């Protein structure tokens, strides 16, 4: 099992300043009144008039049935947000389980940091063979520089669970895996068992993140991929998400969110990304829509996926040409800049927050816009088109 990864970087949140002032409210209401019934314009002659009434707590009556509810709601919201000057991602009191964190270098880690920076409690699931090294690195402080949050504190991981998402329950585990020394000393690491342990330890979660993928024959062209290798890629990279949701949904609080990670190879040809991995990502994206419907109707949980651009993580190095893909993306994407892990992490935090309460079944691209391109503009064939390039 390999977790999709990226370089770990300190996360800086950019919080757009969306101010709801009484004067803005006055402008909005005055415009609304003029459009709905000009006869009322004499009562709401200007934004300053309405603003002064609000500031002095004077009362006024609007009998027009079409706007009475609007006015009441807007005034209430203005009062409630009076002490809040910014629109921010707030996950305080929420608990997240991130499957696929094995080091401080991947997307899973970046997502964990963003969720933690927004106030969420962090639980992680780590591939069993990588568990000892990961926990030892945490204890010895090797990840401390990568744990720094925007406020200067360190991200805390409340608990690390051994996890192999290829297996749903103990009955699925073959004897050779049970006897494998890399699994020695570990227990309760199938998806069902981990969900049961999380329920026992914490009762419930609010956020579920699937940040893992593996294709044992990823370096082989699809035509040279064996059936076993193809099915292994689909099992580890897409069905594992179905399994995680199946077992964790019963302990997810209504209104919660689930997020997975995908890649543009699901819909475009990426030579070298083989072994059935492109098929697995396509399945993951299709499943996202179906799972959004089923999880939404049955449990009121939102399900989305992020299509992240190429990043030079340790796991991605296994593909063998990740540096080439990074260079290609920089040369051809609309935004000619490096793609950072925290940009994916921050997107995940937004999708997990109440700010995204109406977003589900969605595929969100975080790739500097590379998905929008139809051709590679760095080709010599386009040398005479005078295509602008970044100066930096």
Automatic annotation (TrEMBL):
An annotated GO cellular component: chloroplast
Q: Where is it located? A: Plastid, Chloroplast
Q: Known Pfam families for this protein?
A: adh_short_C2
For this protein, what reaction is catalysed?
Answer: a 2,3-saturated acyl-[ACP] + NAD(+) = a (2E)-enoyl-[ACP] + NADH + H(+)
Kindly state which keywords UniProt assigns to this record, in alphabetical order: Chloroplast, Fatty acid biosynthesis, Fatty acid metabolism, Lipid biosynthesis, Lipid metabolism, Oxidoreductase, Plastid, Transit peptide
Do you know which InterPro entries this protein is assigned to?
Answer: Enoyl-ACP_Rdtase_NADH (IPR014358), NAD(P)-bd_dom_sf (IPR036291), SDR_fam (IPR002347)
User: MF terms per GO, please?
Assistant: enoyl-[acyl-carrier-protein] reductase (NADH) activity
Pathway per the UniProt entry? Lipid metabolism; fatty acid biosynthesis
UniProt EC number: 1.3.1.9
Entries under PANTHER family matching the protein: ENOYL-[ACYL-CARRIER-PROTEIN] REDUCTASE (PTHR43159), ENOYL-[ACYL-CARRIER-PROTEIN] REDUCTASE [NADH], CHLOROPLASTIC (PTHR43159:SF2)
Function of the protein:
Catalyzes the NAD-dependent reduction of a carbon-carbon double bond in an enoyl moiety that is covalently linked to an acyl carrier protein (ACP). Catalyzes the last reduction step in the de novo synthesis cycle of fatty acids. Involved in the elongation cycle of fatty acids which are used in lipid metabolism. Required for normal plant growth.
The text of the family note is: Belongs to the short-chain dehydrogenases/reductases (SDR) family. FabI subfamily.
Oligomeric state and partners? Homotetramer.
Name of the molecule in the record: Enoyl-[acyl-carrier-protein] reductase [NADH], chloroplastic
